[in-house]
Amino acid sequence: MEAIKEQYQKKNYEQSQNIQKFVTELASLQEEMQELLKNQHEMQTRNRQLETHLEAERSRGQQLENQCQRLEETVKHLKKSKEETEQKLKEASIESELITANLEEARRWFKARFDSLQPQLRRNRHAKTPDESSLQREVKHFFFHNFSCTEKKQTSLPIPV
C-alpha cells in the first residue's frame, strides 16, 4: 500500500507540477495577450491619427491645386491684359507720332507764312490801317478750319498756299 501511496503522491505531485506549469504558462499567455491588446489599441489609435493627418494632407493638396489653378488663370488674364495694354501703347505712340508730325508741319507752315508776311506787316505798320492784318485773318482762318472742336483730324494738316 505504501508503494501505491507513494506512486499516488508521486503522480499527484507530477500533476500538481504540470498544473502549476500550465497555470504559469496561462498567466504568461494572458500577460502576452494583454500586451498584444494594448499594442493593438495603440496601433489603432496611431492609424486613426495617421488617417486624420493623411486626410488633412489630401485636403491641403486639393486647396493648393485649386489655388494653383486660380493663379494660372490670373496669369493668363494678366498676360492678355499686358498684350492689350502694349497694343494700346503702340497705337498711342503712333497717334503721338502723327500729332508730333502734324504739329511740326503746322510750325513750318506758320514760320513760312510768318516769314512771307513780314514785308507786308512792315508795310501795314507804316500805313497804319485800322482793320486787322491779313496775317491775323489768315491765322484765324487756319485755326478755324484745321483745329475745329467738332472735327477730329487723324491725317496730316493741309498747308494753305
From TrEMBL:
Superkingdom, according to UniProt?
Eukaryota
| InterPro entries documented for this protein | CCDC150
Q: Where does the record place a coiled coil?
A: 19-102
Q: Which UniProt keywords apply?
A: Coiled coil
**Do you know which PANTHER family this protein is assigned to?**
COILED-COIL DOMAIN-CONTAINING PROTEIN 150 (PTHR35352:SF1)
Protein name per Swiss-Prot or TrEMBL: Uncharacterized protein
Q: Which organism is it from?
A: Nothoprocta perdicaria (Chilean tinamou)
